[in-house]
Batch of 2 targets.
Target 1
Amino acid sequence: MLVPIKWLKEYVDIEIGTNDLADKMTMSGSKVEEIRRWGDGLDQIIIGEIEKIDPHPRADKLVVAQVTTGEKKLQIVTGAENIREGDKIPLALEGVELPNGMVIEETYFRGEASQGMMCSPDELGIPKHMVPEEFKGGIWILDQDAPVGTLFTDTVPLIEDVIEFEITSNRPDCLSVMGIAREAAATLNAELRSPQVSLKEEGTDWINSAKITIEDTEGCFRYVARRISDVKIEPSPQWMQQRLIQAGVRPISNVVDITNYVMLEVGQPLHAFDAETIKNQHIIVRKAEEGEVFRTLDGVDRELSAGMTLIADEKGALGIAGVMGGEDSEVTEKTTSIILESANFNQDRIRKTSQELGLRTEASSRFEKGMDPELCLLAANRACQLIEELGAGKIDSGVLDEYPKPVVPREATVRPEKVNGLLGTDISMDEMIRTLNKLEIEAEMSGEIIKVTVPTFRNDLQQEADFIEEIGRIYGFDNIEPTLMKGDIMVGGLSELQKMQERIKNTLAACGCYESLTYSFVSPSSADAIRLPKESFKRDFVKLLNPLGDETSVMRTSILPNMMEVIARNIHRNVPEARFYEMGSVFYSKLGESEDVLPLEVTELIIGIYGGEENFFTLKGIVQHLFREMGLEQITFESESNHPSYHPGRCAAIYSNGKLLGTLGEIHPMVSKNYDIDKERCYAAELNGDLLLELASVAPLYKSLPKYPSIVRDLALVVGESTPVKSIEDIISSYGGDWLESFQLFDVYQGNQIGEGQKSVAYSMTFRHAERTLKDSEVDEVVQKLVKELKEQIGASLRE
Amino acid sequence: MEEKLKQLQKEAAELLEKVKESKEVEEIRVKYLGKKGALTEVLRSMGSLPKEERPRIGQVANEVRESLEKSINETRERIHAEAMEARLMKETIDVTMPGKLPVQGSRHPLTQALDELKEVFIGMGFTVVEGPEVETVSNNFDMLNAPPNHPSRDFSDTFYIDENTILRTQTSPVQVRVMKQTKPPIRVISPGRCFRNDTPDATHSPMFNQLEGLVVDEKSTLGDLKGSLEIFAKHLFGEHTKTKFRPHYFPFTEPSAEVDVTCFKCQGEGCPMCKGSGWIEMLGSGMVHPNVLRNCGIDPEKYSGWAFGMGIDRIAMQKYGIDDIRLLYENDLRFLNQF
């Protein structure tokens, strides 16, 4: 909302400067977005008169004008086409600097001297889109009575400070100079002056020959109409044009400008119809018929639907209520009488209509926020007053006002104790009442409570808390003492689960992994990209009804596609190697008869690596390290050759006590290819985060340090090359006996020294007894038994 | 004989001085002190001396032996030290060569910014609660007093799964869940992903992160809200930080306030980041609307509360000087490894 300060000052006395006003208004709840200063640098522009215009002897498109300032005569060459002899124009003389930075000097145009410049509106700082039609591309022609030789800004009120306010959606009443004036009066503790409206009504009596019928009482709550005859359409005076421009509205003609002026002033949108186009002077407010076609005044044929409210006469539609008038009833230069509409419409209806038609106007955006029906008559009368004052027409006597159910101001109560209790203040009841009164809220003491009557323009004030805010913001939030939280001391912190998540992040960072964060929504084609089987439940996506695009149209069921995109992006940007992880939610469509209406959200942890020395085992090492850090024991890795996203010979399923914890492997080259990765081998581990967190336990328990020495035995075994070491280790674990403290694989060898199709696997085993020193012979006995089992179960022999 | 002994001592000392290897020292030791060594020989011939001279000469002989043993040991040490010195010199390296760095990853800058915020609130007695990204319209809007026709509910603002289910547009629904399940006092923060139907550009992302907080207790006041958020701002940006509470409108709080903090780039002087104002808009906040409390089964006559919310993406961008929000979700390693 753009508010010119001088306009504002018509309704409230403001003794402070614009900056101070802006600060104070911001702190009382009307946030200032910007302060614009109009008319800077125009203090040297004077008014000149064109005495004579001759063609330029050597240029077709230029003319040579003789201009007087009263004291001085000047010759000015111009290309403007809209000037005539006798016109009064704004004149910039030699040495003057214009707002656009241009400095005027005496110059020659094809041999003719030019001793100054006649200015166009945009050269004087009027934004191009605000320039009235008549001066577009030409010189600003002033009224005939403009005094020659005087300062331009004395005639045209251009110098002004304009404040732009951000108006929140609960305060449509502030979308007007009056509304802001009300706020300013309360903020500054100043007197508010409402506009005084009185009409001469010099026209004929019209109300007996005209009629308003509201058929659609759901859509229209009040309809006020006035008729104006002897209408003379012409430009509005400069003061009005400048105010409109400063408030962001382009001047058109007197009648349209007046309706806009009143809308900005009091907030009520008005519409003017050419009265002669209205059949039998009978205005009907009705619902549109489904499929009815209507041409709005922008020349577009619009197909209407049954939910929309129309302004019509006996033969057809005149306008879409609260949105836009019709072309046939539009006020034109030929119009001699008009009917002025000041009405109140159902805000939801207007909002839907505007949305369905894709047509948003200044009027519709105001109506959809909710207007006060009590404004209708005031606004109509105020517009008529301006029409009389500007000599734009005669007001016919009488007003038609259909108002089936007048609004009754709401009453409410406010408890001062509650006000101070919620704000943490000590404001007296008297001050509360005074504050409410300043906001034009009637308030009076009634024993221990305050009784309030809510003005009809404050639909946002519904309950006690709303009044508390009014009192608080005018009292000033900055005057409220900051205090500490009272009540019981509360211990904050992370839950065990959250601490475990922190541990995962720390561990992976220590492993060189960077955390990536990617969108929770993906493309449905990502299922194909990671080669999910046709029957996979992960293809049953949670879909968005209104996605930005196909690429972000379903909720992810796996983070693998996101990780592949991150890896691919880095490879394509020539990052040679990287380790990433992401911990986040994946979403599964609700299954079966689940009572929960929401999809299942499961935490997934994914690690992705590529480049450098990376291989299956560097990733497995990271994963094993993570498990160790999280206190996970009893983890097994089993060969998995059927996972379509992974290399069939380099993929492991990870189990914890029979529960599938995740998958780890080299990405299948066909998956890589789907992400335009040609050569690079990529590796990923997908872990069920929820299960991981459930299994984790990190509370360490001290075990006393060993008191007796250990005995170490190395065991080099020869087995078939396809024998997984896990089968050896299972036997070692089972038959190693109670003294076997730990064992570790330290060498795998394949080559000439052992037979074809064989491999040698070497383990170092540590034996220890907690209460005595072991004897070599005892350990040898255990090892012999173990070797025997290894031979019997998997055909392992000792390496010679 | 005495002369002979002195002669031996001198001779051995001279030899030892020239010695370079420990093998030669041993040879010298054998030569003089060994069983057939020169000194031993001399001592053996002591018997031929007159009786009265024997003690004196014996004493001299002992002195010579001790001196010789001492010299031999010293020479051994000298050679050892020289050898070590030589080896160490040989082992000289170019200390200006680069060190071998351990691998080290990091948390995403958004996580780091969030961690910092969390830490401050945890210190003030808050616990961290989380909730689903896919939410009910009821929890995200209805319960939070959003008017039925509020534009934020539009298709153009919110992603819908079906008419009752959306991607949450704020983390406030987590607070609704907490209020429904927990008896006051409540003191929680809820960080998390949120979604709005915005086409990505330098300042907009359809997915972003928020941190919201909620306090519900008997006698919670707007003064508490001010005091607590002032402490928060000082913790985060330094003791000199000022805060400004401007009245505003949010459907779920009444009264509502936007909170500005002293621009942390220019300390309030005015700079391009704060558009010359010296202030940065940081939080939305307010006293929990009685309708919201009532919707969640909390009696607004007995309890009151305050809530706040802030965008983590924006805070991270301002803090680290990131000028394009899309960088946060691209995960380019060269971006991530700067934090």
Note: Chain A touches chain B through 83 residues (CB under 8 Å).
Target 2
Amino acid sequence: MANDVKPRVKVPKSAKAGEAVVVKTLISHPMESGQRKDKDGALIPRSIINRFTCDFNGKNVIDVTLEPAISTNPYIEFEAMIGEAGEFKFTWYDDDGSVYEDSKPIAIS
Amino acid sequence: MILSRREALVLALGSVAAAAIPMSALASVDDAVAAFTGGAAVTDGAGVTLTAPEIAENGNTVPISVDAPGASSILVLAAGNPTPAVVTFNFGELAGAHAASTRIRLSKTQNVIAIAKLADGTFVRTSSEVKVTIGGCGG
């Protein structure tokens, strides 16, 4: 459905144990709101990413419900508490049933 | 297919009702709040911070951030959008700070509302007016 969907995530390479790190995520997606009309006046059907989750070593960090009022290429920034080295897992859920995933490792310095 | 007069009337009424739905969405801020809080009282003020620009030139991407220490979830609403719901952040056990930023669409100058569910189960709200020069809902 949505073409060229590409997740991009920025996470520090390492962190101190017990430190909160800033995680920035961006995914290229048109986020068609279902409000716009094409040149013939017909409504363009809604097609958005409706949910985003981030887990660290299997534990949930954030779970976001997105609505059509989120801009094209949804950008989400948040903080995660790092207790040990491990891997972030990011998941985006599309209206059309597609699931996009990305993961990033982080070390303890 | 040949429509009887009665069927044609029913169809016409149905399409009128369908057209009326987006209008009623304008009044659904209260519904969205009620769905989030379950009818609990919402107090104004301390406990939640909403950072939004005073003037947004382009309503297609308005950066906002919310912060509510200890909150389990934060709901963001745009009162003047065709559908007021914008985003809900649910913080998990590893959330570093109960804060998040994103970019939203605003159709016109309006109030952006953030409602946080605090750790003790109470709800607080704050709002901020954003002036929008070019609306972000397309044609």
Note: The radius of gyration of chain A is 16 Å.
